[in-house]
Amino acid sequence: MRFTKENLNLENGLNKExxxxxxxxxxxxxxxxxANTRKYHGLLVAPLTPPARRFLILSKLDESVQIEDKxxxxxxxxGKEYISKGYEYQEEFxxxxxxxxxxxxxxxxxxKIICMEYGRNTVGVYYKIKNGKSKAKLTLAPxxxxxxxxxINADHYFKSKQxxxxxxxxxxxxxxxxxxxxxxxxxxSYIEHENDIFKNMFYIEEEKRGFYPEENHLVPxxxxxxxxxxxxxEISFVCSLEENIEQIDVKQLINNEIIRLGELFNQSLxxxxxxxxxxxxELEKDELIKSYLIAADNFVVYRPNFGLHTxxxxxxWFLDWGRDSLISFEGIVLxxxxxxxxxxxxxxxxxxxxxxxxPNGYSGYDNRPLYNSVDASLLLFxxxxxxxxxxxxxxxxxxxxxxxxxxxxxxxIKGIDVDDxxxxxxxxxxxxxxxxxxxxxxxxxxxDGIAITxxxxxxxxxxxxxxxxNKIMEALSKKFxxxxxxxxxxxxxxxxxxxxxxxxxxAKRKCLYxxxxxxxxxxxxxxxxxxxxxxxxxxxxxxxxxxxxxxKKLVNAYGLxxxxxxxxxxxxxxEGDGKKRDSSYHQGIxxxxxxxxxxxxxxxxLKKTKGKQAKEELEGKINKLVEKTTKTFxxxxxxxxxxxxxxxxxxxxxxxxxxxxxAQAWSVAQIFRIILKR
Length: 678
Known about the structure:
It is a single chain. The protein has 678 residues and is an alpha+beta fold. It folds into two domains: 2-250, Beta-galactosidase, Chain A, domain 5 (Distorted Sandwich); 280-675, Glycosyltransferase (Alpha/alpha barrel), CATH 1.50.10.10. It is 34% helix and 25% strand. The strands form eleven sheets. The protein has a nine-stranded antiparallel beta sheet. Strands 2, 3, 4, 5, 6, 11, 15 and 18 form an eight-stranded antiparallel beta sheet that branches. It has a three-stranded antiparallel beta sheet with strand order 31-32-33. The longest helix has 28 residues, at 612-639.
């Protein structure tokens, strides 16, 4: 993950981003040339009630160097009619554990490293300066705000108050906020500015997304540091919502983070630490695994109000979503062998079950659970099974989860109508859910209250999950000595399977109906083949036809399209304002996480395949998928979009650019699984 001067041009620099996180929902993010192109970018974006209520605190820290009588601006800022070109002095950007920027001005060299303090709303910026033959002065200008990260301060003028103690500054940004911001520099001097406004920072990506793109920030003052000829200096800047920051050693923060991540690498047992020399290919694989482990760690956050960990769905704008947490669960916490965290995530998911529904998420403002999901509760069963597969920990499942799982099944049979979910078991033993404008599956886009992909009725993945849930409960009940329950769940599963097989196969199109009565070709049908207990016999002609149709119509290198080309309302490119983006979200755009369903379906088919030649052909297909996915996403994680992570979705036409959330948990999780053949 290294970019040199040759590829640090303006276009490249503005299109490639980085992110580091603090384990409680906060983050630091920007572009590889230091420009902010989103309203979500900032060196300190802090959750006021972790992990929610994220506020932009420190937008940027702009550096200038004066050598003799000439000033050099190292920052890159974008205005509507100008671009400051600090990137011209940038020699390198790299990111493994933390982002590192290197600059050269004549015979002066500056290295800048950004790091967050884990578990606190604190960001540190470390500078290592090697001066040339002339005396110089470094000026650091903190660009400050205090607003909800979804909003924007256009035409805003700040009425700030400052309390200065040497280089430590306590700052109240605005009369509307009494939350203090603290800043400190390890040496030099602080010069207070009065009514200094950074006007009209221009966010290129927000304009593309149909939002107002210009914002004002506060520049409360500047720090100045004198540098003697041939002098080498190490300087630390800290910005925080914590008061006691004077003693923070940013260099130590960086070392602490490297140690913490190193411990995660060791815990995972995925990297062979043998001392003999490794091949180039082995070393490259190690680095790729490290990248994925770091990417996965970004999504693991602590919820203080629960006293438990959870999984953030994606950055910059998502919180923890039940559905996303469950689809991400294996790749984010099980593969890295973070089993104690896995327990906490499961406890979080069942903590607020109501009416048999796992919360699909929590309000970003008051942590109120939201129940607009039919699939999250059913996905829970599969991930409980995965937890058992990895840990063998039946005791935890029996003591903490089994009764909750029973509650879900009973409520789905009885019927649930909270939040217009309209969930019930019909007389044909299939699950019905939703209303005309209720979006409670993962294809949940709405605009102006209108469902873009209406999927009310009997959806293919919901009934696949329902069958799987009852089969898992049958097995668990046997394990726990409850034969009556085992019989009950076996009967429900059998009745579901019988109806599913008779109603869902679309012989004309050689695939499964997405929803009964809707013959559009979508990837959701893969749930019928990919779960622990597939509802369709994976060695059947129907299964083979489903896979062929999916491969022909939906699969590409970056994932699966959400709708086959040629279907009504098909869209290939994710772009434009909110309405246009929502109208394409699940209407043909490619999602990486769906590759996990395809991979699991092939693995399940391999288990049932008979005959040496047929087995070899299917093994070859799986190996080819793994190789292609590894190659595609090794390049993505190192060179494209958000460096060190994988985007939420991709365009479905070349060059298949990354779009949506820049770092998405289920994208990372499912691609990680495939690469490691899990």
